[in-house]
Amino acid sequence: MSLPAGLRRSPMAWITGFMLASLVVLAVAGPLFCGAAADRPDPSAVLQGPSAAHPVGTDGLGRDLLARILTAARPSLLLALAAVLLGATAGVLLGACTAVVGRRVRRLVAGLISLLLAFPALLVAMFLAVVFGAGTAGAVAALAAASVPGFARLAQTLAAGVAGTDHLAAARVLGLGRLRLLGRHVLPNIAEPLLLSVTTAAGTALVALSGLSFLGLGVQPPGYDWGQLLSQGLDRIYAAPLPALAPGLALLYAALTFQLLGEVLAGSAARRGPLAHIPGQRSASRGPAEERSGGPAEEGQVLQVDGLTVELPTPAGPVRPVRGVSLSLGRGEIVGLVGESGSGKSLTALAVADLLPYGARVSRRTLRLLGTDLGALTRKERDRHLATGLSMIFQNPASALNPSLRIGTQLTEAVRAHRGASRAEATAQAAEALRRVGLPPSLLRSRPYELSGGQRQRVMIAAGLMVRPGLIIADEPTTALDVTVQRQITRLLVDIRRDTSAAILFISHDVALVAEFCERVLVMYAGTLVEALPVGRLAASARHPYTRQLVASVPDLTADRDRPLPTIEGAPPDPLALPTGCAFEARCPRRRDRCAEQAPPLDDLGTGHRVACWYPLPVTAAPETVTAS
Q: Where does the record place the region Disordered (predicted)?
């Protein structure tokens, strides 16, 4: 494997490589060529200074100090690496687990890490070395334990960024266990900065371990390392400085090598790009539900939601971005959920999928998926039911797919975890899922960054099909795509509905796109549903002023170019100061006194049409078609 061009051109990289190679050669060859001389006493050459026969001098038994320094390279380096690897493994697992455990355990682990960091690592290592007993094993164990808090805090910080990504949320939707989430979705995405930290920590561990040996707490005679040799030469530093300085110079050389190696690797990583592949977007922790689901199950309904309310904590007080939402989807039905940004569409979907941000509180009267009351299930049962009955397609496939895993791995892990499929069976199903969405099976060995935006979105849809869900929630899946690919994705969803009879909840702010292929439309404003109607009545029979203005704001090539495009004047209400009456009252041209005093209920107008307005608009005389330009 060739070095990156940046490293090949860096003089520091070449110097560091030479130093590292010399340490490896010294650790391997030192005991082989100098081991006999290092252990051979010579009573006639006791405590001699530097000479031609003994360039660094001899010790109290007449043994050659240069041979002993070269021989001590192997135990000094190996013990330091063992200590840092043990401490890094324990610390990384402790810190990274905060991305996959529950809220209470996460708080407990974070508090424990903060408590351990309050004590200086070197003092902790000295204390534990005394407790474990002086010797090699005790020193390594003490140093490893003292380094755990530092690695844990670093891993906790890095894992917090991964915990908010869409690909981890997608893995949670698939119902993957915590160990699988940790091993496949958290650790691979924080491995690079952790490896750099381990590299630089190796130099610190080498100095610390030598310090313990210098104090008599580390390697014990007849064994020896650089720290013990430094301690033995200290008594004669004024008479013969070199026997005391030589072990220290070897220790300095090795520690400097590890530090430079970390700097070179960090510089190379910085030139390639960010260490964390995907920045944090939101916390994936989920708040508890306040109420249990209830109500009878309706025949043929894939999803039943009644009275869904979401409350989020803020420094200024709790806000309710979703208030009393009720909706249902039948088998094989495509329903569009539209509204301006911030109207609560995505939060409604996340509440159904049990993926709300940390601290969110959910209440509802009914929440049934495929006829099963989710509130009556245990946490494990609910996670499994959601994993196999629901699939979610996120808005940004680049962040919803794990950049460190191949496409084949991400497609197969859900069916292997929940359907008991073998690797070969899961791979065959994944290849068939890719063919169904119009992609070649050869992409199974690709990684997400090797695909285009449209291909990544198709992979997301294929991943959802792997568990044969009854409900697919598509959260603005075409927003980041060009018009041609948008049409391809929407046609693909229609074909999937036809072939699998899955219900699809399509979330979008594009009214024209929803009108093109959905059967029903749900309109949200300020966290509530203000109108629900068949898509065929959207243009001519929308009764709520907000819905009518959304339709009117769709661009049209036949419009007068000398006039500005239609817009909805004003802005949505502040979530912290919602009006007592109709939320749209301040922007509504038909508002009256009653609108400001009372919130209108969602009344049934018949033929599947419901509207929440005290003074709904009349039906227009001439039907129109909602189309995009």
A: 276-299
**Rounded to whole angstroms, how far apart are CA atoms 112 and 109?**
5
For the question of whether the overall pTM of this predicted structure is more than 0.85, the answer is no
pLDDT at 9: 58
Strand order in the sheet with 603-606: 390-393, 471-475, 503-507, 334-338, 520-525, 528-534, 609-611, 603-606
Residue 456 lies in a domain: no
358-398, pLDDT tens digit by residue?
Answer: 778 899 888 999 989 988 888 888 888 888 889 888 877 77
The answer to whether the beta carbons of residues 139 and 213 sit under 8 Å apart is: yes
Q: Which helix (H) or strand (E) holds 373?
A: strand 372-373
* pLDDT band at residue 8 under the 50/70/90 scheme: low
Say if 284 falls within a structural domain. no
Which are the contacts of 295, defined by CB distance < 8 A and separation ≥ 6?
Answer: 304, 306, 365, 366, 368
**pLDDT tens-digit profile of 59-81?**
888 898 999 999 999 999 999 99
Can you give the three-state secondary structure of 200-266, one letter per residue?
HHHHHHHHHHHHHHHCCCCCCCCCCCHHHHHHHHHHHCCCCHHHHHHHHHHHHHHHHHHHHHHHHHH
Residues 6 or more apart whose CB falls under 8 angstroms from that of 376 comprise 292, 293
How far is it, in rounded angstroms, from Cα 55 to Cα 49?
A: 8
| Alpha carbons 412 and 422: distance in angstroms, whole number | 9
Q: How many residues does the chain have?
A: 629
Give me the domain span that covers residue 153. 73-272
Overall number of domains in the chain = 1
Instruction: Tell which residue, 411, 527, 420, 386, has the closest CA to residue 464.
Output: 411
Query: 233-292: per-residue pLDDT in tens?
Result: 888 888 788 888 899 899 999 999 988 888 777 666 554 444 333 333 333 344 444 444
Q: 199: domain CATH number?
A: 1.10.3720.10
Residue 216 structure tokens: 């008599």
| Domain contains 243 | yes
Would you say residue 87 lies in a domain? yes
Q: Cβ contacts of residue 527 below 8 Å, gap of 6+?
A: 320, 321, 322, 323, 325, 343, 344, 575, 583
